[in-house]
Amino acid sequence: MPYLLDEELARLCQNGDDSAFEVLVKRYEKQIFSLAYRLCGDYNEAADLAQEAFIQVYKALGRYDANKKFFSWMYRVAHNTCINVLQKKPKAATDLDSIAEIIADTDNIANQPEAAYYNKELGEMIDEAILSLPDKFREPIYLRYVKELSYQEIGVYLELPVSTIETRLFRGKQMLQKKLKECTGRGR
User: Fold this and answer.
1) SS3 of the chain
2) Which tens digits make up the pLDDT trace of 120-179?
3) In whole angstroms, what is the distance from residue 23 CA to residue 56 CA?
4) Is-contact 136 168, C-beta < 8 A?
């Protein structure tokens, strides 16, 4: 199959072409798995959530409006599916290893043995601090600083106004800063 835009593939799916949906799954399986993993923090559970998310995306294809970006629509369906499944289970933690890159200044200490240890410790400390944030602050922080999405894109994904995203990022960063100061002993 030649390279087709997501929206074209979605139209083919709506017309019964299952191979077009396979292309979409292959194209976005990592992003949807990452979303699921971020929400649950467990590899196996994330794989199950991602699979369920794609099932729900497939079932909802009839409601997709081809005039809108497919990825945004699919991400929203997947996000809602994951949240719905997780709400039926006990709360699980989220792992965000890559957020350490946001705070650590690795350029100044790269290629030193202590740097690897420092970065690992810092990453674990940041993960712990982020995991302790309420869900409504954790997700916008991840989308902004790890996925590097704009406020508008985050608003689309979470179905919230930009002003709410700004507020949650501001408050989430304040909480994160306080928790990190406590972890490093600077907040005492």
Assistant:
1) CCCCCHHHHHHHHHCCCHHHHHHHHHHHHHHHHHHHHHHHCCHHHHHHHHHHHHHHHHHHHHHCCCCCCHHHHHHHHHHHHHHHHHHCCCCCCCCCHHHHHHHCCHHHCCCCHHHHHHHHHHHHHHHHHHHCCCHHHHHHHHHHHCCCCCHHHHHHHHCCCHHHHHHHHHHHHHHHHHHHHHHHCCCC
2) 666 677 777 777 888 888 888 878 877 778 888 888 888 889 889 888 888 888 888 888
3) 16
4) yes
Token duo for residue 133: 């944030």
Q: Which residue has the tokens 């690795």?
A: 106
Amino acid at residue number 55: I
Q: How far is CA 58 from the centre of its chain?
A: 20
At 68 the three-state DSSP class reads: coil
Q: How far is it, in rounded angstroms, from Cα 71 to Cα 65? A: 12
- Global pTM exceeds 0.70: no
* Residue 54 amino acid letter: F
The residue assigned the tokens 């976005």 is: 28
- Tell me phi and psi for residue 65, to 5 degrees: -95, 110
- Between CA 94 and CA 170 the distance in angstroms is 20
